[in-house]
Please model this.
Amino acid sequence: MKRLTSLALALLLVLAAMAPAALAEKDNWLHLFLTDNPETLDVQLTTDSYTIPLNCFDRLVETDTVDGVAQIVPGLADSWDISEDGLTYTFHLHEGVTFHNGDPFTADDVVYTVNRMMDPATLAKNTDIYYGVVAGAADFYDGNADSVSGVVALDDNTVQFTLEQAYAPFLSCLATPGGSIFNRESTEGVEDFGVNPAVCFGTGPFQVTGWELGSRVTLKANPDYFKGAPQIDGITLDIVSDADTQRMMFEEGDIDVFNFDYAESQLQWFLDNGYQDQIVSGSRAGTYYFMFNTTIEPLNDPEVRKALQMAIDRQGILDALYSGEGKVLNTFIPEGVLSHNDAAEEIPYDPEQAKAKLAEAGYPDGFDMEIAIMADSTTSLNVSTIIQSYLQQIGVRAEIKQYDESSYYDIRRDGELPSYYNSWSADFNDPDNFLYTFFSRKNTKGRSINYDNQEIMDLLEEARVMVDFDARMAAYQTIDDAVVHQDAITLPLYQRNHLFCLNPRVQGFKVAWNGWSDMSFYTISLAD
Amino acid sequence: MAKYITKRILVTIPVLLGMILLIFFMLNVVPGDPVTVMMKEHLKEDVVENLRRSMHLDDPFFIRYLRYVWDAIRGDLGVSWKLSRPVTGLIATAFPYTLRLAVCAALFSWIMGIPVGIISAVRKNSLIDHLSMGLSLFGVSMPVFWVALILQNTFKGTLPVSGVQTWKGYILPTIVLGWSSAGRIARLTRSNLLEVLREDYIRTARSKGLSRLMVITRHALKNALIPVITVMAIQISSLLSGAVITESVFSIPGVGSLAISAIKNRDMPLLQGTVIFTAVLIIVGNLVADVLYSIIDPRIRVE
Model:
């Protein structure tokens, strides 16, 4: 009998708990999710978790999206002068800015931030903003100096950078999350700066006030923000790893912004369940591409590569996988990034001509090749499978080889990864971020491209230090044309839209120009 | 008894050392440079070199193993590469969530499993027997993530589907995690009770004129539950370690979620730490089960 009673009691308990829970409270907080803990609050140590720096810190200059185009706008610096030779940058700082703990922001904080990044003991990952760019930065990092000689505070409100050589994208680089400015007073020598919200002070519109590991990060509005207090009281970032759970939380109103970057698999559900009107999209400055490893026969023959380029129906992939949300690209530089050439020659989809080209190149019966993908990426598998079937139509037998993540990166680093599909999105608005990253002498082997057009590689180095804007843009268009058309090193596929589903109460949401999933929520307000 | 327990504890020491060696070996022979993987799409040779040096990755394997064991003995499992915090601290923060969930699930499985097993045995071959055995078979066979998804879809709006900010957050994960254990316990209770009910002494008790209820509670259950209790003890350790999927689906910041995140991010120290911690839990759980068994059933204590 006793057991029966306990059984009944247990049942009652369960039933009682099923009584409707209180509906999600309508507060003035923006509720979002992350799929995993942020790596750290210290952006110098991460190339991955940008939500905290973008919302809690400021940079000397910022990139703003105006009509979908990226523009450099004042940040902590009101204005700046660039010397004619492009070597000296003088920033005039906004006066009266304070950190979250009340400390005033001065030029010395900028000097400290740069030195902290380049101090090898910091173990920073975002070093390339300054390394080899700011005079003396590489020396400090490599142990040949005690500080970065190229950054000096002229007075409390003026800071000057001297570059090793002219580098046009410098301002854009300073505007990336890695350029966030720290407070010397509260950061120097503090070991748990990256993990303890109580000691993490920026100047940004929000302040990190809580981080319950694995469950929630809380950002509270900074009422003293120098550009004006945010219109919301704060942001909660719940850590939810499961895509279906994320979607159900959105349905219940527990999440205000559903970012499809984190849960692509859920898009169809939203489209099928009447959420079309709540979905906002914006073009994203990123290129999805297919890259040839030019040392693997017969892909070392440019004519063969050109034939493969023609064999793939890129619009077909876009339609099949993403209901056409995006745009086919004929350049490696996507729309939205400087020097993008809208008038570039079109790469036709023409399997017949592709076949003829192959026969001309000596492969009338096609050949065998490999496509490399990372084992746990369903998107890569889907796209690669479609590419495989297009290649089949011209007689090329492509085998999809799956690698686990570490072998993939390891083999790629040695220049031996077979041809692959992947994507790259803009960190900053400059063609250097695309072309140098892939086709320069420094990087081409590490990405298993093994490009060897010396003339173009020289031009790539020259373009970096050009001061004349128009000449620089022209140079990048030449390079883009070379790698896509003349040498056919890569097949740019398309650029895709960045999709979000918004709770109707969210106002002032702006899709950022760049390619990151993380963004600033400063402009958002919430309707009642 | 004390001698028996001491002996059992001593046996676990080489088991633990061997296990650490095995885990350390397995995670270190995986091809690929962890720093290169950490940097993903970013190629920065200078950074990679600096990080490798600071993480002692250039030292020989055996030196790293000895250093690890030496540190582990003193309770230091290294620093998580991704979260840059001590692994022991991370596990200590996460474990209470896992423990709470495991205890809830265990209680749920006992409260549901034992009575259902008894009723099924007593009403053998009745509708209620078939129904409850069918349900337990279902619980044992269905994949956890699927059950979780179905329950989330059914109860969204009335119960939280994510997080454990309130106690209500534990309800669905408890059912998901406890269901299959409950099924196992119900089936075990039923078959043991049925077997015991056929024994001679039960017939004797019945013929003494004791009521059926009396016979079952006083005589039959006592013996039928011995194997069930051992299973219950082992089960707690497996609930503690088996909650990985449940934790991940319901966003519970426990040890399982840590392990998943460590795998995704190739965070070797954290992965090693969670695996070793879980293994220790299982060893301890089995030890407790063995000791418990020998206390309840003196026949087990081999001289």
User: Anything to note?
Assistant: Residues 60 and 71 of chain B are 17 Å apart (CA to CA).
